[in-house]
Amino acid sequence: MNGELVEEALEVLRKARETYKKAYILFSGGKDSLVVLDLATQVFKPSEAKIVFTEITGNTDELNVDYVYRVWQKYYSDYELIHLKRNEDFFEYMLRAGTPGPKGRWCMKQFKQVLWRRLPWPLFVSGMKRSDSAKRRLVYTSHFVRNDWIIKTNALPILNWTSRDVLDYVKERGLEISPCYKIFGHSGNCMFCPFHNRRAVSLTLADPYWRSKILSYLPHTMKKSNKLKEMIRRRWLESPALKSASIATYLVGGVGHR
User: Fold this and answer.
1) pTM of this structure
2) Is the distance from CB of 237 to CB of 219 less than 8 angstroms?
3) So what's the pLDDT on residue 225?
4) How many beta carbons lie within 10 A of that of residue 3, not counting itself?
5) Burial class (CB in 10 A: 0-12, 13-18, 19+), 24
6) How many Cα atoms are found within 13 Å in the side-chain-facing hemisphere of 36?
7) CATH level 2 (architecture), domain 3-173
């Protein structure tokens, strides 16, 4: 593990604690947020921080929820866990709003940020990394980012880490990664996402419950064609996974992991 990156992250968190006194640590059940949770609890005392888990109503797998609670109880039970959840199904909302995209990412605003802005403390700590996308490399140049809509500052302690750095830290600290990564190829917090890679799409569609739910809603959001929707169509509705023999068996009444 790169000791300089760990020290940089801890220094960001120490500065955040000194400036803002208290913080909400965002924990989605993903690897990046797991690392940030572990780092932040080395700096903030239980009286100074709360863990925030946001379930995406109707689009979060139960294994993700179970994992978040298991990790909290095993490692961080001294800290209060706040479980947020909007009282509306993600897929029902998508019927009205259309599929989320780069210029209309309503899923983040309507199913996360609208809940976060109600929390009184001024600081969030999250696991965003510049290495995740070219856009993030250009946009995020500081470890502290102000979001005026949610009236919060976001501290980004692992901003300069790579995915390899994250995995090395997890291994070195002996932390437990969510089983959703092996089953679905992602954290399970957002089962349908237009930007899942092809492996994650195939594994998600291999689950009969999610296959049925996603494919029963998605075609109804694809009436107007554009570049994003064509990409979604190819990745989700024309996935090779739907043509495999193992998936075909689900068409005749198979049941999912529920």
Assistant:
1) 0.90
2) yes
3) 62
4) 7
5) buried
6) 33
7) 3-Layer(aba) Sandwich (3.40)
